[in-house]
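Session log. Operator J.P. requested a structure for one protein chain; no other inputs attached. Running the standard single-chain path with token output.
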Amino acid sequence: QVQVVESGGGLVQPGGSLRLSCAASGRIYRIFRMGWYRQAPGKQRELVASASTGGGTNYAESVKGRFTISRDSAKNTVYLQMNSLKPEDTAVYYCNVVNTNGGDYWGQGTQVTVSS
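Structure written below.
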């Protein structure tokens, strides 16, 4: 079994920062990609950022220049540093782990609320 656990969400004022963490454990085998998705009320889940083995990263246009994804491959951990947060960033953020065997795993989600 694989466990994916997120942490770091919360309430922050516009312009503030948060750092999300996600750790994968269990029978992970070899991870191909780790990433963050988010889902706001009434909207579809969307990719925020991803980091693939080998160093490639991908960001949603709406977060470029504000969010930074990073991985610690030795710890099967991925982070999302979120700066200059806006109310439209409010959503449940989900961690996603894809391994080279085609396994696709999700965390339970962590709420991020940007409000004054």
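Operator note: Residues 11 and 113 are 5 Å apart (CA to CA).
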